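1st attempt posting a full record on here, be nice pls
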Amino acid sequence: MCGIGGTAGGSAPDPRLLETMARIMAKRGPDGEGTWSDDTAGLAFRRLAIIDLHERSSQPMHLGPLHLVFNGEIYNYRELRAELQRRGHDFVTEGDAEVLLHAWAEWGEAALDRLNGMFAMAVWDDEARRLTLASDPFGEKPLYYARSASGRLVFASEIKAILAAPEVERRADEPVLAAYLAHGVMPPPGRSFFAGVARLPAAHLLRWQAGAVELERYWRPRRVDVPAAYPDAVAQLRAVLRDSISLRLRSDVPVGTSLSGGIDSSAVVMLSAELAGDHRRHAFTARFPGFARDEWRYAAEVAGAARVEHHHAVEPSAAEALCDLGTLVVDHEEPVATLSVYAQWRVNQAARANGVVVLLDGQGADELFGGYGVAHGLAVRSMGPRLGARAVAHRPRATAARVAGSLARDHLSGPLRRAYRRRTASPYAAAHLSDDAASAERPPAEPWARDGAPLRRELLAETFFTTLPALLRYADRSSMAHSREVRLPFLDRRVAELALSLPAAFLYRRGLTKAILRDAVRGAVPDSILGRRDKVGFDPPQAQWLADAGFRTLVGDVLLDPAARAVGLYDTRALESDARTGTWRDPDAVWRALNAELWRRRLVAAPGAPVA
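the predicted structure (as tokens):
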């Protein structure tokens, strides 16, 4: 896990800029730094050593005309190394970066089809005079880029490093910011909160050559054969998931787990405990004593069942969040939906304090297996008349309501959609922002993601276009802020393709979502976890925190001062009214306004301010 950056084209690369970019990303890689350049391209690198801790695995790495910087992990590097050795390749390291470089030399872009991993990479080819950037299939590892009028390309793992280039302007993307403030909508996968700074979407290649840029998707989830018998499909999922976890336990540094107490993280903890044997295990849980949504009792039960040796409780408070808020805003670089990222940030901080470098987590399962509330109605609609009628009969009133809700959601458009969005907009966003956001239509999913039954279309959208891309951004920033690596076993192409090929009746059974996942880990995960019907997000007591005197004072100081008023983004009358009563009518919305203004001041409006 590392930080990468560089430039191509325009004037010759500036070694001082490359060094600055690397230094800005120091948190991503405290174990080493490197730069390289020729007359056209330059590469910058910060290293977090995970596999082959020796300096021989430092980057940039070179092989003939190829020059590589790479952020992430190639989990099947041992198998690829053996295949490449049979083809005549010789290796001087024990790491995955060298395997990736040799794989590129052997197969070129086709090497991406052979990788099981998370990665953002850049390869400069001296002979072709071509720079290639690539993102992993789900976008776990970020890669941003900006283009100048001269044809120069600047890219990096972090936007802060890109902003170090003099030709890149610090400017908010106004439509993106409006949608966030009014409705909490995150940027689409190819954009950021900064105008002119794009993100390379998941499963994409970017080719730069002589100032021209070409963007291409290299992978789409295939439909795979699924056993017709449900028990056989359950067994297949368990086998693939176990193998995914086994690959992600490969490490030369300590590995632990994040544990919320829900089904997904509990599955990862229990299966990794089986596979790790006597491996010294750590699990980290954010807890909020007295909060109705606190899941500590579930997490503690799982940790006990897995015989976790050290179950660490992380207890963030409003006072601590207030103290850390400035650092959190800079670490995340872009506004976030809720303060749940602070709990995530603190979990990674605790992992660092306990010497655990790698954390396994359960993200991705809700999107792939239909864990969110909308899945109920969509699953019934996708089953066909006979199975759908049976599902309705099982829980008639609740199921019928969910089906109706999903139909209304799908078909609400035009004036009705705009009117609905205006009614549900933030009370603290300026009226013109709410109108702009209500009128803007979210770009439709790509044609390949609109194929199939309603539930499949929703899962594809959540995984690649809406929910998951934002969650992966949060996970990357919260972990790399503390030089930790997060690995996600559900985001294995084999797991995803199987999940997205399953019939709806395998995902929704007996009135339960994620049915096949529950059954795949039955016998490993305690039944008390598998039987849970409540869907609890990874949430702190945000409303309570924002009602705290310290936060109320901060909101007033930040959002009601002359500078914020002059910007024209906020409804100051609503903020003043609620500040006087001490009650926020929409705590999520006031958080977004506060976050946006702190971000704007620190990273947009004050170019001379420190950004690292």
